[in-house]
Amino acid sequence: MIVQATNTGGDLGSNHFDLMIPGGGVGIFGQGCAAQYGAPSTGWGAQYGGVSSRSDCSQLPSALQAGCYWRFDWFKGADNPSVSFRQVTCPSQLTSITGCSRN
User: Fold this and answer.
1) Please, what is the average pLDDT of the chain?
2) Domain spans of the chain?
3) How far is CA 61 from its chain centroid?
4) pLDDT of 3-19, one tens digit each?
5) What pLDDT, on the 0 to 100 scale, is given for residue 8?
6) Which listed residue, 19, 27, 36, 103, has the most CB atoms within 10 A of its CB?
7) CA distances from 76 to 13, 32, 70 (A)
């Protein structure tokens, strides 16, 4: 899996990064979903952790529901799992979607 880290937050431990998964909680940046989707300031479910079950994904806007289902179906609802990772050059297929790239 390739992920693009756009920040490391201010509430993370050493060598951590956030995965922004629909329904996974808004963390320290609650205003993003509120501005874009009209979400409560703490997002849907818990601010840290999000919704607690697959069925709760139906609370989210339709544009976010498939990602929320992925969280429970493929990601198995994991919360802050331990992973091994390494830095790679971000592929253009990803940066063309996000609009973020290093100079």
Assistant:
1) 86
2) 20-77
3) 15
4) 877 766 666 667 777 78
5) 60
6) 27
7) 23, 25, 8
